[in-house]
Amino acid sequence: MALKLANNAVSKLAGAVTAGATSFAVTPGEGVKFPVLGAGDWFPLTVVKSSGAFEVMRCTARATDTFTVSRAQEGTAALGFDPGDRVELRWTNAAYSGMVADIKADSNASYFPLSGLSPATVATTANTVAPVVVRNGGGAGDTDVAALGFLCGSTYGAKLYLRADGVMGIGGWSATAWKWYVNTVDGTMTAAGNIIAFSDESLKKDWADLPPNFIEQLAGLLHGTYTRTDTGLRQVGVGAQSLQKFLPEAVVEGEKLGVAYGNAALVAAVKLAQRVVDLDKRLAALED
Predict the structure, then answer these.
(1) Mean pLDDT of 74-94
(2) Distance CA 64, CA 32 (A)
(3) Is 256 exposed, middle or buried (0-12, 13-18, 19+ CB in 10 A)?
(4) 223-227/146-152 β-pairing
(5) What is the pLDDT of residue 266?
(6) How far is it, in rounded angstroms, from Cα 49 to Cα 34?
(7) Could you tell me which residue, 46 or 2, shows the higher pLDDT?
(8) Which residues pair with 87 in a beta bridge?
(9) pLDDT value at position 139?
(10) Measured between alpha carbons, how far is 165 from 184 in angstroms, rounded to an integer?
(11) Model confidence pLDDT, tens digit, residues 94-142
(12) Domain extent listing, the chain
């Protein structure tokens, strides 16, 4: 069942209509102003008496100028009408509800909940529904992606898109494609530029040096190549629990432990550089 609408669809009754009638005719030749209906289609009608009283109806079939209707819709009562009373296709509450229902039922449509209305679906991280769904055309590769566009006037535009192989990224339009992207299958993230975090000293206080035996503990850190138990991929890295024992600030706690690799690597490089400088000084002293 689908709602059908038309602009400026207005006519007049060709004859009298009783309160119990389920069909009527409009002015000859003016039925064409109203939508063509297929099986299950409908459109709203408001029939208005000269006194201003009105009745909302639902038209379920139209044969040229003759309409088949359901009477007394949307809280109105069935009335008797005179020839010449107005027949109008008006936007009604049921029409709006029908439009929303049609959008929800259309697998190729997107549903945007309006302010103050509940979303059509409740999304979680586990289920397969979402209040807003953007689909591609059913193909694959860069020429057929599901995309949202963002445009600032005529100055700059960019897209957020998902490719059929699970790669999701930002780019295109004013930017080159794939400036930043993540493989949602295995979580690998790639950026065309540098990944930068604020490190201004004005944002930091309570500095503390690393323990004297940091290098020795670093040498004992669980490290190497391994197989991920969740993806089966071979990777290289360190053990978060092992690092947490002597550098907990570099370990991020969550559902699973994570490592701030850049922070840990740079601090370790500084300590190693200090050790090298110290050894150079000792070597130079021995040579003298």
Answers:
(1) 95
(2) 7
(3) exposed
(4) unpaired
(5) 94
(6) 20
(7) 46
(8) 11, 47
(9) 92
(10) 9
(11) 888 877 777 666 655 555 554 444 555 567 778 777 667 788 888 999 9
(12) 10-91, 146-191, 205-287
Buried/exposed 72-107: b ≥16 CB within 10 Å, e otherwise: ebeebeebebeeebbbbbeebeebeebebeeeeeee
Token pair of 40 as six digits: 């299950």
Listed in sequence order, the residues at least 6 apart from 40 whose beta carbon sits closer than 8 Å to its beta carbon are: 1, 2
By residue count, the chain amounts to: 288
Give the angle subtended at the CA of 256 by the CAs of 191 and 193, to the nearest 5°. 10
Residue matched to tokens 């991280």? 125
Q: CATH class for domain 10-91?
A: mainly beta
Distance CA 245, CA 253 (A): 13
Instruction: Give 127's contacts (C-beta < 8 A, 6+ positions apart).
Output: none
SS3 readout for the chain = CCECCCCCCEEEECCCECCCCCEEEECCCCHHHCCCCCCCCEEEEEEECCCCCEEEEEEEEEECCEEEEEEEECCCCCCCECCCCEEECCCCHHHHHHHHHHHHHCCCCCCCCCCCCCCCCCCCCCCCCCCCCCCCCCCCCCCCCEEEEEEECCCEEEEEEECCCCEEEEECCCCCCCCEEEECCCCCEEECCCCCCCCCHHHCCCCCCCCCCHHHHHHCCCEEEEECCCCCCEEEEECHHHHHCCCHHHEECCCCCEECHHHHHHHHHHHHHHHHHHHHHHHHHHHC
Q: Can you read off the two tokens belonging to residue 43?
A: 């459109």
